[in-house]
């Protein structure tokens, strides 16, 4: 073999016994960790978040280098085209609450302001709708329901789940769009029962409810559009896994200092103790 390749025997044995350089060893380790972090988050993270995770592991590496290595590995975070179905029926004569939130999207403590919305979930067995309730302080989804009908019962069930889980004190601001489900008499009565203050966005202004709109956009980009739901049960199981185990407990959030919503909420529990 050495004769055919025109190399010396001593050179061949030196190559076999030579140890890789420290730089090559470090790069191999980083490539391994980048691949792990990428796959561990279902391909949702790009170079900024993966850089944060690697630095927490003790690696000194820049976002630019992580991006370069990801390109070498052929890794790219989820990117999907926007697909929007209008789920807001504001063409009604029901009472509309004032805009108490007024785009104040940061609160000092949990359970001071919740935002709510409905979004469409495509499924081959039939379309479905997700109603979500998000805490503005922790960005945690505190209540959600998935059903094949966009009814008042759907949004009330999500609110009921949130209330039972968190038991907020009197005066919590509940913000939503002007959809007929949120403006209905039954929903308004439920807010009164829970001692919450109703707040609604201005007509046709999605920016007034930007945080929950952002969550639904994230859910679709990172999971829904990358998955083809054949049955409603598959859709429910997938949404459950994403919200409860990934988004709430694992996915790091830039606005929270790159920790998950549950981790951020735990800080307030420690302070209270």
Automatic annotation (TrEMBL):
InterPro entries documented for this protein: HTH-like_dom (IPR025948), Integrase_cat-core (IPR001584), RNaseH-like_sf (IPR012337), RNaseH_sf (IPR036397), Transpos_IS3 (IPR048020), Transposase_IS3/IS150/IS904 (IPR050900)
Highest taxon listed in the record's lineage: Bacteria
Any Pfam family matching the protein: rve_2
Residue ranges of domain Integrase catalytic in the record: 106-269
Transmembrane region(s): none
PANTHER family (alphabetical): TRANSPOSASE INSF FOR INSERTION SEQUENCE IS3B-RELATED, TRANSPOSASE INSO FOR INSERTION SEQUENCE ELEMENT IS911B-RELATED
Role this protein plays: Involved in the transposition of the insertion sequence.
Protein name per its UniProtKB record: Transposase
Organism of this sequence: Paenibacillus borealis
């Amino acid at each position: 073999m050495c004769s055919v390749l025109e190399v010396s025997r001593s050179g061949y044995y030196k190559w076999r016994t030579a140890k890789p350089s420290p730089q090559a060893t470090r790069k191999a380790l980083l490539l391994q960790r980048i691949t792990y972090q990428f796959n561990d988050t279902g391909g949702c993270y790009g170079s900024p978040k993966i850089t944060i995770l690697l630095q927490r592991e003790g690696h000194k590496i820049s976002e630019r280098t992580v991006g370069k290595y990801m390109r070498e590995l052929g890794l790219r975070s989820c990117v999907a085209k926007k697909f929007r179905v209008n789920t807001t029926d504001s063409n009604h004569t029901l009472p509309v609450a004032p805009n108490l939130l007024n785009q104040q999207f940061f609160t000092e403590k949990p359970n001071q302001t919740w935002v709510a919305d409905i979004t469409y979930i495509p499924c081959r067995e039939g379309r479905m709708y997700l109603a979500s309730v998000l805490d503005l302080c922790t960005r945690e989804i505190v209540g959600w329901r998935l059903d094949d009908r966009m009814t008042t019962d759907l949004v009330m069930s999500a609110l009921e789940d949130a209330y039972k889980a968190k038991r907020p004190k009197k005066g919590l601001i509940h913000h939503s769009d002007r959809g007929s489900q949120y403006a209905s008499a039954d929903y308004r009565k439920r807010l009164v029962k829970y001692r919450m203050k109703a707040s609604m966005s201005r007509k046709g202004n999605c920016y007034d409810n930007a945080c929950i709109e952002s969550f639904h956009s994230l859910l679709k980009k990172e999971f829904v559009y990358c998955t083809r739901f054949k049955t409603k049960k598959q859709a429910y199981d997938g949404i459950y896994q994403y919200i409860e185990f990934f988004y709430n407990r694992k996915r790091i959030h830039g606005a929270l200092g790159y920790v998950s919503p549950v981790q951020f909420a735990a800080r307030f529990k420690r302070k209270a103790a």
